[in-house]
Design a protein that fits this description.
heterodimer; A: four-stranded parallel sheet; 17 helices; B: alpha/beta; seven-stranded mixed sheet; 25 helices; 27% helix
Chain lengths: 436, 774
């Protein structure tokens, strides 16, 4: 079957160039031209442009980016801040890190335009601490942008000033939650804040703040350069534009695939050379580990916000983790649960205690010690966690468990009848059995 | 809330479980439900702390104008809105299941050690697990355990495995006390309350965290494993430690005080108290308590005797002598009245004073003319634009006043200034600045809080009064001890009779003489404490003295010597410097053993009943009445109740107040070289007599240091931690230095702390000293 939707590289258009990450390379590819254009517009026009483009937040929730900018009260006499959420930490999610590696300047340019639009004179990029290579690359890009006059005082003679601070996190998944990120950025422990007030009213240092995902901000220069119509002409009715799909796992050619929203996994797999040779698709995540899993029956679900949602999951970060038939679903659910237990911030009861308990139950189930009744208990505990916690972390923690039970209940039972896991864990790895 | 305030606030009507309730805008759903008597279970919620939404126990279903929230909401974080319909666990199966689910999760890691836990029997977790839990646990795993307990200070112990991580303690410490010395650390299931690596939980208010802990995670070292709540008899009481006026709860088991807690009084201490009020009660059960009346025999020793014999000895000793009365500042209003009436009727003298501390004629006039009619109160602080502190350290000398100021500093950013030459750690939390009394700018919304130490510098009280009159600011006088306001109102001072009646006013004297059924009352104003001591020692115009609860060392280093040549009757709860030299010692009831009333700095009385119902000790007033009877000059105050009735019947003086001759401020002496001006006050936790025997409490007292400015430190060649020697003509103290925000010409040292008892050593508490590197 031939793909009906083609790749549409915008963000990733220059990634194959050796010097795509340098200021020189970026400028050669018409980098910072959008900035020039934006600085000649009124800030409100820029906001309107982004609204018109239909760009929605690429961090997972899909909130319209232009509307978020529009929430910042203008003329309030307060400082405004732009904070870029580069704390990419979800299992499976791997779009922002390669983007920042290959083209840090597009993010910097987006930051400047967005700050200009919301009238912020200080922006922050909060980057995950473990990705030191990205940190270094961003640091260099920011330094180069300062030297080139794209940052600092009176940018491009426009009278607009902007300081850009790169902040390195200390390795906590919760800091990807925007209010926890703000607390962490302020120097506190990263734990989510009570809302309201929302960041647009009282965010960083209690000032109006926009928090955007890396990909959202990096999408801005192209929209400014090519127009809202260009962007909104791509994608589907309510999910406009192009985006990065990250294929990983049991796939022949894993990587980033930039395409209009609404492409299907069947089309993407086609481009990625299919599931690894000799194997079949068993299950996959549409948007990272916190989105309910899909199976082969969902291959033709349009991967846009509405399509995935209608099929019972979430587009999330478009992190398509592919698992073939060698993978034990119980083991996968346990691994994910261990991640959430480790990353729970501890603030609220259901997440803190619930993830602790889920891991123990899944370990027993994996070891074949569970019964049918235990599956009901597991589901009931998930029900007592989902929608009961302070932030969405716990919802994400139970999503793989509930969805895996929905699709593969019999496999859970098989662990009991088999007296342990019926799978060979080595078979699901890329290693040869002999090498272990 | 005042009626005017009510009309200003928009009211919102919501429906909860089918019942309408109208509450002020901003009210949280959980509070609105309380108004209907609907109890939503909760742990992290506390009405005086900012919402946390952490425990998730209070989940309810909410819809607004027909639009339902997709999932249950924490009712402790959501304010009411018009058109809101709330369904709690009583009407929503979803909310009920959500709550039961949360409860189960809270319990999976909670030890079921209720039978040995202090909280068992009064535990919100235990109670709500019964009312809102599911009875059995489905958890089969291994519970989280920790080393236990961890002493986060000498008085607060932490059992981490019991903690439900509600963050009440950490929020209290940060938001209410301004002492963020405990915090949550680690994450996930390992999150726990902790202290900073090397800094224990040294807050004067730490006991409140034990009280508001909804489980047994925080316990008081002194109470741990001492009692079961259901074995205790709880009695409302009043705190005897300072003039803040806290409502208290005293818990008694088999006649012994085991625990004291902050009581609720929204207008005064809200729900808080200080650690001294909470934990300094070992003196009640001290071995030093005087058990029976004692009379000094021929052998020079005190011998226990019967009450009739002791009373007879008092009468015999007083016969033919002029006597004065020295009353400490810790008496109840009833006892104060007893001393006052006893002096006038039985001893026929106005030689009576409650000021067992530095005092002056200026102060006596200020108190009797001005302070006695002041009613500035906590609400005035709540509304103030500015608070000016005159020789008053709120955190050290009236800790609940501090909490109230801190609340407004945090909430409204009100400004605080002080005439002290130093910004103490407490005042630092208030962001206080130094401002001279002659130049500070106040408005009629400002509040001036004058401490008892204002009497130590001539002209200060006059200047404070003038400042209040000039600016229109509200004035208050705050003594350090709990009984001084009542003593003033009851006339335990030479120039006043009870009810503020000036001795100098003939009509006032007639008033009281009539009420007391005596022909006349002494006409000349009485001597003050200094005058009485001088009359006993130097000119011998007094030959006897009745001493009620006075430590002479609080007055001066030679005060005790002044008593040696006289007939001394000591009314005391414990053996002291005075009982050691007294001719007759009469044991009196301590605060938990009697009825009475304390009057706080605002003039608000708080009456309390006997906490120990079958206590045999007698209140001072009853003993004084017995003596008066035996002297043939009865004061007819056989019980505290009778005394209360008599005080009620007298009313207060509506005639002219006593006069106040303003005193000019003296110029501050200049110092040079190794000279410095000494500035001192008593710290809240120090060597005070009522703190005796409570080592856990003493463990959190602030270390004794000498505070000097950076300039002086440089001049002396010392750094933090080096020692300096402070010397006066009579002695010296040596203390480690702490460089502080203090005027260069001053040095500060604690007045009555370990290694720093200024009266017995330096002989002075303020004035010129020399400071050298030790």
């Amino acid at each position: 079957m031939t793909p009906t939707t083609k790749l549409m590289p915008v963000l990733s258009a220059t990634w194959d160039q050796d010097d795509s990450f340098t200021l020189e390379g970026y400028t050669r590819n018409k980098g910072y031209a959008a900035l020039k254009k934006a600085l000649k517009m009124q800030p409100d026009e820029v906001i309107q442009l982004i609204k018109d483009s239909g760009l929605r937040g690429r961090g997972g929730a899909g909130f319209p980016t232009g509307n978020k900018w529009g929430f910042i009260p203008q003329g309030d006499g307060k400082e405004h801040y732009l904070v870029v959420n580069a704390d990419e930490s979800e299992p499976g999610t791997c779009k922002d890190v390669p983007l920042m590696m290959a083209n840090p300047h597009v993010l910097v340019e987006g930051v400047i335009i967005a700050s200009y639009a919301i009238r912020a004179n200080h922006a922050f990029i909060y980057v995950r601490g473990e990705v030191v290579h990205v940190v270094r690359r961003l640091q260099q890009a920011i330094e180069d942008a300062y030297k080139a006059g794209h940052l600092g005082k009176n940018i491009g003679g426009s009278g607009f000033d902007l300081e850009l601070t790169l902040h390195v996190g200390a390795g906590a998944y919760i800091c990807g939650e925007e209010t926890a990120l703000l607390d962490s950025l302020e120097g506190f422990r990263g734990q989510p804040r009570l809302r309201p007030p929302f960041p647009a009213i009282a965010g960083l240092y209690a000032k109006p703040t926009v928090v955007n995902n890396v990909e959202s901000i990096a999408s801005v220069p192209a929209i400014v350069a090519n127009g809202a119509e260009w962007f909104s002409s791509m994608g589907t009715e309510k999910s406009k534009g192009v985006t990065l799909y990250s294929l990983s796992g049991h796939v022949t050619h894993p990587g980033q695939f930039e395409a209009p929203l609404g492409i299907t996994l069947r089309e993407l797999l086609e481009m990625a050379g299919g599931v690894r040779a000799g194997h079949q698709l068993k299950f996959w995540t549409p948007g990272g580990s916190s989105t309910p899993i899909f199976t082969a029956e969902h291959l033709d679900v349009p991967l846009d916000y509405e399509g995935v949602s209608a099929a019972g999951s979430m587009l999330g970060t478009k992190a398509l983790q592919i698992f073939d038939e060698t993978t034990c679903i119980v083991r996968a659910a346990l691994r994910w649960s261990e991640f959430y237990k480790h990353e729970s911030c501890g603030k609220c009861t259901p997440c803190r205690e619930g993830t602790w308990w889920l891991v123990q139950m899944l370990k027993d189930l994996e070891a074949g010690k569970g019964t049918e009744a235990d599956l009901e208990k597991l589901l009931d505990v998930c029900d007592n966690i989902a929608g009961r916690s302070f932030c969405a972390l716990a919802d994400g923690a139970v999503a793989p468990i509930i969805s895996s039970l929905k699709h593969f209940r019999s496999e859970y039972i098989a662990h009991q009848t088999n007296g342990g896991c019926p799978f060979d864990p080595v078979a699901s790895t890329i290693f040869e059995k002999a090498s272990l | 809330m005042t009626p005017e305030a009510l009309t200003e606030v928009e009211m919102i009507t919501v429906v909860i479980d089918g019942f309408e309730v109208t509450v002020p805008k901003g009210t949280l759903v959980i509070r609105a439900a309380e108004k209907l008597g609907i109890q939503i279970p909760r742990f992290c919620d506390h009405p005086l702390l900012s919402p946390a939404g952490a425990c998730r126990q209070c989940l309810v279903d909410i819809e607004i104008n027909g639009r339902a929230f997709p999932k249950p909401q924490a009712s402790c974080t959501i304010p009411v809105e018009n058109g809101m319909i709330v369904k709690t666990q009583l009407t929503s199966p979803v909310a009920e299941k959500a709550q039961k689910g949360i409860m189960e999760l809270l319990l999976i890691n909670h030890p079921l050690d209720c039978p040995v836990c202090d909280k068992g029997g009064e535990c919100p977790l235990q109670n709500q697990a019964m009312s809102n839990g599911q009875g059995v646990s489905r958890y089969e795993g291994v519970k989280r355990t920790y080393e236990k307990p961890v002493a986060i200070s000498s008085q607060v112990l932490l059992d981490r495995e019991r903690c439900v991580l509600c963050a009440r303690c950490t929020r209290f410490s940060e938001e209410i006390a301004g002492d963020p010395f405990i915090t949550l650390n680690e994450r996930g299931a390992l999150q726990q309350v902790g202290i900073y690596e090397k800094d224990p939980f040294q807050s004067y208010y730490s006991g409140n965290t034990v009280q508001i802990c909804p489980v047994g995670a925080l316990t008081g070292a002194s109470y741990r494993f001492r009692a079961r709540p259901f074995d205790l008899i709880s009695v409302d009481s009043a705190c005897e430690h300072c003039a803040s006026g806290c409502a208290m709860r005293t818990d008694i088991r088999r006649g012994k005080t085991l625990r004291r807690l902050a009581g609720d009084d929204a207008l005064v201490n809200q729900e808080w108290n200080c650690d001294k009020g909470r934990w300094a009660f070992k003196y009640l059960t001290s071995r030093e308590r005087v058990a029976a009346p004692m009379v000094r025999g021929e052998d020079g020793e005190l011998h226990e005797t019967s009450w009739p014999e002791a009373i007879a000895a008092v009468v015999a000793g007083l016969a033919g002598k002029r006597a004065g009365v020295l009353v400490g500042g810790r008496v109840t209003r009833e006892d104060a009245y007893g001393y006052s009436k006893f002096a006038r009727v039985a001893l026929k003298t106005n030689d009576i004073d409650f000021r067992a501390r530095a005092h002056s004629v200026e102060e006596a006039e200020f108190l009797s003319s001005t302070a006695i009619s002041l009613h500035t109160n906590y609400l005035d602080i709540d509304k103030a634009d500015q608070v000016y502190l005159v020789d008053f350290e709120p955190e050290e000398e009236s800790p609940i006043v501090f909490l109230r100021i801190y609340k407004q500093v945090r909430k409204r950013g009100i400004s605080v200034s002080t005439n002290a030459p130093i910004i103490s750690s407490g005042n630092h939390k208030l962001k206080a600045v130094r401002a001279d009394i002659s130049s500070v700018q106040l408005t009629e919304k400002s509040v001036i809080l004058v401490g008892e130490r204002a009497a130590e510098t001539a002209g200060t009280l006059s200047a404070a009064k003038a400042l209040a009159e000039k600016s229109g600011a509200k004035l208050a006088w705050i003594s350090r001890r709990a009984g001084e306001r009542a003593a003033l109102e009851m006339g335990v001072i030479g120039n006043l009779l009870p009810g503020g009646r000036p001795v100098s006013d003939a009509a006032a004297r007639v008033d009281m003489a009539t009420a007391w059924g005596v022909k006349d009352l002494p006409t000349t104003a009485g001597r003050d404490t200094t005058g009485i001591l001088k009359a006993l020692s130097t000119d011998k115009s007094l030959g006897a003295v009745i001493v009620g609860g006075v430590d002479p060392m609080d007055i001066s280093s030679d005060a005790l010597t002044s008593l040696l040549d006289s007939f001394v009757v000591s009314l005391e709860i414990s053996h002291s410097a005075v009982t050691a030299i007294a001719d007759v010692v009469l044991p009196v009831a301590a605060v938990v053993e009697k009825r009475g009333t304390f009057v706080d700095w605002t003039g608000k009385p708080r009456s309390f009943d006997k906490a120990i119902a079958d206590a045999l000790t007698r209140s001072d007033v009853r003993i004084l009445s017995m003596i008066a009877d035996a002297m043939g000059a009865p004061i007819n105050l056989p019980t505290v109740s009778a005394t209360q009735r008599e005080i009620e019947s007298l009313g207060v003086w509506d005639g002219a107040r006593a006069s106040f001759t303003l005193v000019a401020s003296s110029a501050t002496p200049t110092v040079s070289g190794s000279e410095a001006m000494l500035y001192s006050y008593r710290q809240l936790l120090d060597l005070g007599a009522l703190q005796m025997g409570e080592e856990n409490l003493a463990g959190t007292a602030r270390a004794s240091v000498a505070r000097i400015s950076a300039a002086r430190a440089t001049a002396l060649g010392v750094v933090d931690g080096d020692s300096v020697k402070i010397s006066s003509q009579t002695g010296s103290v040596t203390l480690p230095v702490l460089i502080s925000e203090i005027a260069d010409e001053f040095i500060w040292a604690p007045r009555n702390s370990v290694d720093s008892q200024l009266i017995p050593t330096l002989g002075i508490t303020h004035g010129s000293v020399t400071v050298v590197k030790a």
